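Continuing the batch. This is chain 6 of the set; chains 1 through 5 are on the previous pages. Same settings as before, nothing changed between runs. Recording input and output for traceability.
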Amino acid sequence: MTAVVGLLSLASFSASAAEPVDPIEPVEVKNPALVELGKMLFFEPRLSRSGFISCNSCHNLATGGVDNLKTSIGDYWAQGPINSPTVLNSYGQIAQFWNGRAKTLAEQAAGPIANPLEMGSTHEHAVKVISSIPGYAEYFKKAFGDEKVDIARITEAIGEFERTLVTPNARFDKWLKGDKNAITAEELKGYELFKSSGCMICHNGAQLGGQSFQKMGSIRPYQTTNTDEGVKAISGRDQDRMTFKVPLLRNVELTYPYFHDGEAETLEEAVEVMGDIQLGKRYTKEETARIVAFLKTLTGDQPKIVYPVLPPNGPDTPKFEPWAPKPEGK
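Output for chain 6:
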């Protein structure tokens, strides 16, 4: 019996190994207390200046880890300059943010807190707020061994929680593992077209993306009114203009609108534009429909999150600014 199970496992592995993509797998949780603290902080609006914006505001776990807006809304209703990428399956990417300015999930978590267009606070104020809430003390002690609160611990906890936000058991993953009935013939044709077109040059790895930076418009220039310059903002090199981290395709049917500027409202539009400007291909309606059908097989089990009850303010919790129109000139 053991030998039969071993042969079946080997066959399943071989089927997966024959394809240029691996299934998404659940992650091992090494410090449950740190993950639980991170979950609370992920949903914690008091990390923002207004007390209304949390990480989940832009990376909503109920909607594929995004906010489904063209560009996100932040502090004092500020319109962000770029589309919010999904937080699901974000662990293991080459970097974080569209321009790769953060190397880790913890480093990424630190950015929005102090960004005036996002959460609008400062790291110092965020630490002061969390430190003043007595209910957090026991969670920090369980996670770190003592009650000390600093920005490094806050972001480490958030990053560790985000690391667990994977979506296994997509129908395509089941197909990779040997269940040939998990996807339809039409979806399989879409996958084969996806491969033969060259899409996997950029969209590869278990996440089907997130492993490289590519220029948007390698064959034909991408037309947009969005002023974000991509990696150039970090490197300062003109050749890096319009170069962005390749987005993940896992759960892509949920993460509309698409591209760094949110200009593509549907998967069909995104496939047609990418085929044109990246590959020099003009897909027929039938071909587009097949690729889209394949992409929809990449939706996995969404994180089953029990939303935490956040501890109430302490007597010394700093007062938040009122949620009102931003004063003129500020």
